[in-house]
Structures are given as C-alpha cells and as structure tokens.
Amino acid sequence: MSASPLSLAHIIAALRNGEVPVSAYVAQACDHLDAHEPEIGALLPEPGRRERLLRDAAVLETRYPDPPTRPPLYGVLVGVKDIIHVEGFPTGAGTALPPELFAGEEAAVVALLREAGALVLGKTVTTEFAGSAPNGTRNPRNLAHTPGGSSSGSAAAVAAGYCPLALGTQTVGSVIRPAAFCGVVGFKPTYGRIPTAGIVYYSQSVDTIGLFAPDVAGMAQAAAVLCEGWQPSLPSEQLPVLAVPDGPYLDHLDDDGRAAFAAQCAALRAAGYTVQYLPAFADFEAIRKRHIRMASAEAAQVHAPWFASHETAYRPETLAVIRDGQTVGADELDAGRAGRGDLRDALHALMDAHGVDLWVCPPATGTAPVGIAATGNAIMNLPWSHAGMPALTVPAGTGADDLPFGLQLVARAGADESLLAWAQPIAATVETL
C-alpha cells in the first residue's frame, strides 16, 4: 500500500462542513479496513465494529445537525494504542497476562477526544507492555518490514488509511520511529503536555502520549485539542535556525540513513534555512545507559504487583527489562531522574548560545528493517525522550523497496506550538526527496 492517506486537515474540514456525512465516512473506512487489515494487523479484532461505529455516527449527526456547532474533531476516527484505557474495551497491553490485572478508568486523553467529537475506531496493536516484543503488525508501505514499535498498530493504522489520527506512547522512540518507518507524521509533545492518567505505564518519569497523522496541519489541529494550555503560534516570516547534534549521536546511522540525512540538510539549505552542526551529546553512552536503567527500574516497579504470580506469561524481551530494573538501586534511580532536567538544561543552553530554534536529526538509523520479529533501533530518539523535549517527524523521501525516510525536528521544552508551526514549511521542503 503506497498511496498516501487523506490528510487529517482535509477530513476534519469535510466532516465539519457536511461535505461528507459521518455515517458515510465510517462505512467507507470500515470497507477499507476489511479489505486490508487481514494482511496488516494494525487493530485488535472487534466483532460488530462497523455496527458500533455506525450507531455512534448516528448519535453525532443527531446531536450536531448544524455545521457551526460541530466540535473540532467531529466524526474523526481515532485509533488508540492498547495500553490506553477506553471505556467499553479491555486493555490487553499486548500480553498474555489477564487484562483484569491492569484494568482502569478511561484515560483522560480519550475523554478529551470524545469531547472533541472523535470516534474510537478501535484498539491498536502494541508490543508487549509497550516494550520491544512485537505482536505481528506489518508495515503498510512494505509488508515484509516492521512498522516499528512500540506503537506499531497506531502508526500502521494511519499509514494504511484506516484512520487519520491515532494515539501512541513514547518512552524511548515508540512514536517518532514507527511514524518514520511508516511514512506518516509523528508528534511526541513536551513531557506532561498531554495527560497520561489512564495508561499502563512503562516508565512514568518519561512516558509521553503522542500522535500519528498523515499531515502536519492536521496534527496541529489535534494537538490544539489534546495538549494542555495550547496557544496557537502564527508562522513567522523569519525562518528558524536549525542545528544538527554532531558527534557520537550521529555515529549510529547506517549508510543509507546518513546519505538521506545529508540530502535533507542540503534541501533545507537550498530553501534558505541555516543548518549548522554543533557538537552535542559527548557523553551519549552515559545518557543512553541512564535512560534505559531508569526506565527499566520504573517498569519493574509497575509490574511488581503481579510479576511473581505471572512471570511465566511474560515474553523474554519484557522479562529482561524487568529483571534489569530490579537491579537498579534507589540512588541510581534518583540520579537517572535528575539527569532528565540536567540534559534538557544543557540542550537549552546550547541552543541559546548559538541562536538555535530547532534541532534537526534523523528519526531512525535508516529505513524500516526487514522482518517483523523486532521493531528497529530507537537510539536516535532516546536523548530527546530523556530530556522531555517535543519532537516531530515528517516524511522526507523514500529509499529502497518503497520504504520511507523521515526527518526529526526537536524544539525547546514547552515550545510545541512553535515546533508545529515551523514544521509545515520544512515538511513541504523535504517530503519529495
């Protein structure tokens, strides 16, 4: 499936102005899902999905007959990662453990979506407990390749055109990387800007709810609904100053990823952007270890209530995380948590010293790896997740086998609005490379 899905901005407009009735939109989406889902596996099975959605569509159409009264995401179908609680759906968290162990009330972010008029298409497939053990989802751009993870199903559902918006979570690279692998826009806001109440946590110190959409304009409309304290940012005539974090961070790229990133930077310079290379992350390996150990320790704490009774039901990848986390002492955990703010402050200071508005960097080491037994390397996302800074990836060219490259943009913590405003012209510059 290489055709690009319709933009979220277009779908929002068509539903709100009545150009497309919600019931017709739902029926068409279900037809499309029925045709392609058997080979992609982005959603958890749901008997009666079409009938439920048509009932929900009828309720919306009755409640909001006049276009001016319609809420901002009126009728938009949304996929929800299966570690996020949704009323009426079990939360399976991608595991064989009994779902009643971690059941809970509907997540705050889902309540916000419902208030905005969105309809839940269904639960999207996640790796086990948002870790590294995948559950069979394939990349719609090439079925022989991974869609990434842990938000595998959310990225694939948007890329496949099932829904124009989906929720994921990111602890290391679980939104940005799968978005890049699947050729869609992924947004991980500043840590804490979207409420996380009502999810099965991996690491509460860094877990962030993020979004997938086909386009930056539509992503900005969704972010305005879901991010706390959103203040629209008008695009400036002055182009943002861009910086590349030079040093050991970039050493993780494969040859194709390095060549693609060089072409992206060249295109940005040709479009008038200043792109400077700044030495950064000299202690990258220490940052990596600190993040992984902290996240593993917090995962072990999350699973402590049920781990002893259900240890044999866990996948090996998850077992390794929990056992590693059990070896982290209180002092090491405290140091890991404190390191988040230290890294953020250091990156902000570097940006201030050189007049930088955005970091630009690859969202992954290359294109999506072949096979679905693993989800790829999240190393290019790790420092930004540790620092809690907002990140966005946009499609930026295509490599071999119709597999997309992305470009990752990172702004100061709290500057999510500016990030999305700056991202639109940048996306237009690199999307056809």
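[next item in queue]
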Amino acid sequence: MKDLESVKELISILETLPSIGKKSAARIAYEIARDRIKGLRILDAIENVVSNVRECSKCGSLSEYEVCSICDSKRDKIVAVVESSKDIEIIEESGSFGGYYFVFNDSVEKLREFILNKGIKEVIFAFSPSVENEIKMRKIKEELGLNIECYSIAKGVPMGVSLENVDISSINFAFLGKILLD
C-alpha cells in the first residue's frame, strides 16, 4: 500500500526514541496526522529544541545558553556526577541536593577541570546501580588523581517495596548501607 508513506516514515522515526515501541509510535503518528494543529505545535516545539538547546560548556548538561543556570549560580561546593541531563532534572525536583552537577561523557580531564574551577570539596556519583557503574566510578576516582572525597549515592530497598520483590544485590547494598536510627 503506497498511501500514508509519510505516516509510516514518522512511525519508524518515533520508534527510534527511547521507551517508544511500534504501537506507541503508531498512536502518536496517527494523532499528529489527524490533528494538524497539534502536529504543527509539536513541529514548532521540536524545531525550537533543535535550534536552541545545546550542552553547557562547563558541566555538559542541556541548556539554552552557553553556560547553564546551575553552573552560573552559587551553590554548595559538591558535585553530583550523573549519566544524563534528565538525572539532573529528577534530582533537582527532589530538592535533596544543593550542589553542582556534571554529566559524565567519558572525559575524566573535563571533570577534573570542573572540580578544580568550582573549588569542589566532595564528589557524589549518582549513577544507576550496576556492577559496571561500580567499576566505572572507581576507575574515574582513580583517574581523577585528586585528594577529594568521592561517594556514590546510597543503594538498597526502595520505599514501599516488599523485600520479596527486591533483588539480592539491592538487599546486600541495603544491609551494607544501614542507617542508625536516632
């Protein structure tokens, strides 16, 4: 069927995005095709993002400016090293951290430079818990070659989850990182 080639192309492009499968991609594509105004608003928003968003020259986070608003502000002399800009948004939303961020993209030298330029006193690796990331954090710490305290975020049992639904590694981390009750 030669009809709707443009919709099929949109579906195949949408499928390449994280967390969007074929069914979700098809629903989105057909909704855009059906509602032209919504489609044009989405097109405008995508064009805006593509034209205006770039990486912060200091921390690697996404920003509409050369230097993001976090790097351009005065914060605690702590840096959370994260895997993506989305992680920053989640941590900021929690209100649990008042330091700087650095999106790690395999450049230990750039991270070292950031730490030295900002006068950072403490590094917290906020990577997703995995054996690979444990190894990666230790390697980064070693390659930094700085006399600075380095931590990883706590790991363990999530709030509201029954122990029967938690994997063994998370239970092990939970017991290693036990918390003293006052």
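[queue empty]
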